[in-house]
Structure formats: structure tokens, C-alpha cells
Design brief:
Layout lengths: L7 H9 L3 H8 L3 H7 L7 E4 L18 E5 L3 H4 L10 H24 L5 E5 L6 H10 L5 E5 L6 H10 L5 E5 L6 H10 L4 E3 L12 H16 L1
Parallel strand pairs: 1-2, 2-3, 3-4, 4-5, 5-6
Length: 226
């Protein structure tokens, strides 16, 4: 039996075992398989491991998307998780291009994926508070939000959770060094039913230039002397 003789349900099941590139390549072989590739039911789950993947045409975004994961740890994107004041001009331009790619992609998710249930972002130094705010507003069914090593996330994201995360059941902000203990306490107070985890976040040193830290130390010494 030829593959095209299988019914649509069988073909969807077959496609579900393939990665995004394999699905795209198979869809190029005939019109029937292309129709299966374009079936929204095939795209309820998406995983990405590189910023480059967000630009490809080997996946579909739509209301069927329920679970989205963007996780990367390669050496090329590690620089995006360092403090801005430590980057040279080349590194800043490199990070800016990644930031635009991620922001544009998440904007598409906001506009086209209102039924999203879970979102995991790990190692994404480009994610901003505004991105999370828009996602919470446009994806009211979001139940799980897991952020790890997203260095630009601050207490503004935690505030957005208290205002727009009515459906949220799980919130992780692990290794997000610009999240404060006060912000975490506010989430616990306003959203007591949310399972909150913040491993190493509030205990990490937030982004700031060394000069500012020295100034604070000098000021505290003066107060002690007085």
C-alpha cells in the first residue's frame, strides 16, 4: 500500500512522529501530504531550540497551538544573557537581531494562538516584560508559564501575572536575576493558588554596573560613620 492511500487520520498520526523539517520535506512530495502538513491538528505542540528556527516555514501557528517551548543554550546565544554593559558593539547588534526575531515571533503567537495553555522560555535573554504582558492578555487560557534564565524579566512580569493571569496555575521564574523577593511575595499574596517556583532568582545579583555597586557601598559606609 502506498502512503497516500492511508486515510487522513493515519497520515496525521504518521506526521506526528516527525520533526518539523521532516514534516515539511514529506509535504513537498504530493498535494495530499501537503494538506496533511497544513492541518491545524498537527500543530498543537511546538518546540524550538534555536532563534533561526523561528524564521523557518516548516511549522504553522494557529488556534490549535496549546503548548509552546523555546529553549536554547548554545554558545552563540549565551552572550544575550550577559549584562548589557559588558557587551561590545558587535555583541549588542547580534543580540538586537535575536531580540527582534523573538519579539516578532511572540507577537504572532499573541495574535494567532489564543488557546495557548503552556509556555516555556529558557535561556531567552531577549524576552521582555512587555512580551509576557501581551501573551497574558492575549492568551487568557494560559495555565503554565515557565521562565528560566530570562535575564530581562523583572517584577513587572510578576505584576502582569497578578493582573492578567487569571487561569495561571503554575509560574516558574528560575534564575531570573532581576526578579525581587518583594515581587515574589506579591504574587503569593495576590495569587495564592498559583504554584510558584523561583529557584535562585531573588537571591541573585541584579544587573547593574560595578560603579553603581561601589557607590552604594560608599554611601552605606558614610551612614555608618555618621
Amino acid at each position: 500500500m502506498h502512503i497516500t492511500q492511508l486515510n487522513r487520520e493515519c497520515l496525521l498520526h504518521l506526521f506526528s512522529f516527525l520533526d518539523k523539517n521532516s514534516r515539511k520535506n514529506l509535504a513537498k512530495t504530493c498535494h495530499k501530504l501537503l494538506e496533511v502538513f497544513q492541518d491545524p491538528l498537527l500543530w498543537s505542540l511546538l518546540n524550538f531550540h534555536s532563534p533561526v528556527e523561528l524564521k523557518k516555514d516548516n511549522f504553522l501557528l494557529g488556534p490549535a497551538l496549546k503548548h509552546l517551548s523555546i529553549c536554547w543554550y548554545s554558545e552563540r546565544v549565551k552572550v544575550c544573557n550577559t549584562e548589557d554593559w559588558m557587551k561590545n558593539s558587535f555583541q549588542k547588534d547580534f543580540c538586537k537581531s535575536h531580540e527582534n526575531t523573538v519579539s516578532d515571533f511572540l507577537l504572532d503567537v499573541c495574535n494567532r494562538c489564543p488557546n495557548l495553555l503552556s509556555l516555556t522560555l529558557s535561556g531567552c535573554g531577549h524576552i521582555t516584560d512587555d512580551c509576557i504582558l501581551q501573551l497574558l492578555k492575549n492568551c487568557p487560557n494560559l495555565k503554565s508559564l515557565k521562565l528560566e534564565n530570562c535575564v530581562r524579566i523583572t517584577d513587572h512580569t510578576l505584576e502582569a501575572v497578578t493582573l492578567h493571569g487569571a487561569s495561571l496555575q503554575t509560574l516558574h521564574v528560575d534564575f531570573c536575576r532581576n526578579v525581587s523577593q518583594a515581587g515574589l511575595e506579591r504574587v503569593k499574596e495576590k495569587c495564592p493558588s498559583v504554584i510558584l517556583r523561583a529557584e535562585r532568582s531573588a537571591n541573585m545579583i541584579p544587573d547593574s554596573k560595578p560603579e553603581k555597586k561601589l557607590t552604594l557601598e560608599k554611601a552605606s559606609r558614610k551612614l555608618v560613620q555618621l
